[in-house]
Write a structure and sequence with these properties.
homodimer; alpha+beta; Creatine Amidinohydrolase, Chain A, domain 1; Creatine Amidinohydrolase; 2 domains; 9 helices; elongated; Peptidase_M24B (chains A, B); aminopeptidase (chains A, B); EC 3.4.-.- (chains A, B); protease (chains A, B)
Chain lengths: 370, 370
């Protein structure tokens, strides 16, 4: 892996130098992990003029370390001695000691207070904005990253499949969510990719619903959204079911509609497609059926080391899909008081020649009556 | 509750006006919750010149809402129409529209990029630093807050007690952690207060250890640290056990030492005690036994709406304890390769006349052989 991290840092360095900064300070945890591997909490990475340095807040034995291994052994480590020190400040000090004249910072992550502390310790450094440079590098995944997402998706499919075989009526959203998270770990996940959402009855179809003590009842819609983290990579799957023997007509109609919207979104995932066109493909199916109110602000988003990455598939998004970009497609409709439907897959954009979008989450999307 | 929130906002307003700002923008989630009640994700609070306003990122139906109720109904809501907008920017706009000339911001929470966006939308506002004003208000708890912590501690005690009655040998750290989290919810917690830590054998005694697939074995030290969130309030308990019939002599010695250090810390919790003296009371017991290496940077910390709040009980901490401040006392020793011991309680500082420190986490601290 060490070569992979080194190659990523080399690409970032090129961008920095193009931007006029010989040095960069990476503070956002997922970005540090992308460039240096799993590191203890609060670790920052200095892309130095002479040398790259991983600056850790304390002896790692005493610090929770990111799951999934160790940081790049090829990197020099600098460990703060005392407690309470800010690794970003120490890293800026090192950058100045290396003779850098400018340092690019992640101004979208660094707080105003930390930025001030950095400036005060390194007054000779010209502080620039690294912006989302690392996030941009992270958008297109290599096959190693995609295989982590694929395994995570298999784990999520397994956990969901097992839940469907168990008794659901009478159990609370909270308990179902916890059981799903336990099963994710049973099957080898580092942990859940995000707080598992289980939404029954009137809650069903709400994006990001936090599980409550609402019990599953006959006739409910039940929507479930979960994901596994595997070696740091996070995937997502969402399905909606009906509880009981036979769905009501309105449930079948609503389900078919959301399914059609989700399929339209999936089918629009081709290299070169504009983000907004993917969103429109799904959204217009719902619009044309009169569901203009209460639609989620996005149809999908990128996934990777974070569960919500670029690209954002929204009406206003700029940019086009590349091959090897994993995204979710997750349209939904929620009818206040009645519940609703969400269907959510994680797919990888692939060229037509390679068979088109690769579906990672393969649990059936038929409307199951449980 | 509405009066409670209003009273807290009134106290903050006094501090702001003393600091020369008629308006303040609170963005840190726990601070927003403290001043306005449970609000949807990304909600910010404007303490306005004419009126206080809760600014939400979107229709709350579409946004995960903090567990434990609704925001203060007495507050005016301003909901952003489009997606992707920053409530902090919208709030600054409102502040300017109210005729404020200055606005105090949480520079320790707001990123450089958001701060710039705020400045650009409200150029006529003088932007000041609110600093940790809200965090300072949060240090001393009212009895309502303490009762939430007390209930959370009871829940954590129950979950831990049940685990101790089950078979442990052969099970992995991960599974024990998940079972504890399930039991927390079984007993009415909103969820875990932080990622449950279960550490067996050589991992035992490591602060913030992330559970692994290491299985519990005969002769292990097993240290467990968990907490419940109840109505948003987070407590913490940590215990260390030995697995098997009879602990080894080194285990008994190490346990007795950490127990003595933890007791010394607890007994030093009196109103007016300096934070650093509480730390020293516990630390010197370990120091005098020769354990100067690898001691955790802190002996304890405040708890409340966040699991790690002020005060920090460290050698360098400034300040003195007040009554009604809940803190943890959690010294530990970890011997690389062999494991170690941590003992962690949540207590509330009380005057001698009221019986001294109130122990919230009452699970026995005898060395149990399981």
């Amino acid at each position: 892996m060490s070569e992979v991290y080194a190659a990523r840092r080399a690409r970032l360095r090129e961008r920095c130098q193009a931007g006029g900064s010989a040095s960069a300070l990476v503070t956002r945890p997922a970005n540090v992990r992308y460039l240096a591997g799993p590191a203890p909490q609060d670790t920052v990475l200095l892309l130095g003029k002479r040398e790259d340095v991983l600056v850790c807040a304390g002896p790692s034995d005493d610090r929770p370390s990111a799951a999934g291994g160790r940081p790049d052994e090829a990197l020099r480590r600098h460990i703060l001695s005392g407690p309470g020190g800010d690794p970003a400040v120490a890293a800026a000090d090192l950058a100045q000691a290396q003779g850098a004249d400018s340092l690019a910072l992640e101004e979208h992550h660094l707080t105003v207070a930390r930025h001030r502390a950095v400036r005060s310790v390194a007054p000779r450094l010209r502080l620039a904005d690294l912006g989302g440079a690392v996030e941009q590098l992270r958008v297109v995944k290599d096959e190693e990253e995609i295989s982590c997402l694929r395994i995570g998706a298999e784990i999520a499919d397994q956990a969901l499949g097992e839940l469907l075989e168990s008794i659901l009526v009478g159990r609370t959203e909270r308990h179902l969510a916890l059981e799903l998270e336990r099963r994710l770990v049973d099957h080898g996940a580092d942990g859940p990719a995000f707080p598992t959402s289980v939404a029954a009855g009137p809650n069903a179809g709400r994006r990001g619903h936090r599980p409550t003590d609402r019990r599953v009842e006959e006739g409910d819609f039940l929507s479930v959204c979960l994901g596994a983290t595997y070696r740091g990579y996070r995937c997502e799957i969402g399905r909606t079911f009906v509880i009981g023997t036979s769905p009501a007509d309105w449930q079948i109609e609503l389900y078919d509609l959301v399914f059609a919207a989700q399929r339209a979104g999936r089918e629009s995932l081709v290299p070169g497609a504009a983000y907004r066109d993917v969103d429109r493909a799904a959204r217009q199916v719902l619009d044309s059926a009169g569901y203009t109110q209460g639609l989620p602000p996005l149809t999908g988003h990128g996934v990777g080391l974070e569960i919500d990455e670029d690209p954002q598939l929204t009406p206003a998004a700029m940019g086009k899909l590349d091959a090897c970009v994993p995204v979710t497609v997750e349209p939904g409709v929620h009818l206040p008081g009645r519940g609703g439907v969400r269907i959510d897959d994680t797919l990888v954009v692939r060229p037509e020649a390679d068979g088109g979008p690769e579906l990672l989450t393969i649990t059936t999307k038929e409307l199951l009556a449980l």
